[in-house]
Write a structure and sequence with these properties.
- Helix content is 56%, strand content 6%.
- The protein has 169 residues and is mainly α.
- The chain has two domains: 4-76, no CATH class; 85-167.
- The protein has a two-stranded antiparallel sheet with strand order 1-2.
Length: 169
Amino acid sequence: MDGDDYYLSQNKNVCVVCGKDKEYARFHIVPSIYRTHLPETLKSHRSHDVVLMCFDCVSIALNEQHKVKVLLAEQYDSPLHEVSKFITLNQTISGLKIQAKTIQKQWAKMPNKNKTRMLIQLQERLQFIVSMQNEEKGSFGEIIPAKYATYDPNQPELFEEILRFVQTD
C-alpha cells in the first residue's frame, strides 16, 4: 500500500521543524475547520496531517496558518473560525433555561404577541437540541427527551413538564 513506509518507520519524539526534544505538542497541518469536510480516510488518526512541533514552532505555524485562512476566507468566502457544536448546544440550552424562567415568571403579564414569539423560540430550541442529540448519536447523552421537540403548546401538562425539566440541573 502506498505510504506504508511512513507507518513502518521509527518515529522520534522531536519537533519536526527544529528538532527540539522537549516541550512539544501535536499540531494539525490542516485546521479542523477544513478537516471536517475531508473524506474519512484523510480525517483518520493515521493521517500524515498530525506532526510533533515544539511550542515555539507551533506558535509560528499557527500565525502562518491564520494567514492562509484569511486568504481562503477572502478568496472563497470561507469561515475563519469554527464554532463547536458543543458550544452552540450549551448556548442553546442556556437560552432555553433563561426563556423557561421568563415564561414561568412573566407569562401572565405578557402580551399575546410576545407569548406566541416565546413559544416559537422555545420549540425551535427544543427541536435544535433534539436534532443535535440525534446527529451526535448519544455522544453527550439525552439532554432533552425527544417528545419535547414536537410538543403542542395547547397541552398545558406537557408544557409545564418541559418548563420544570429545563429548570433542573
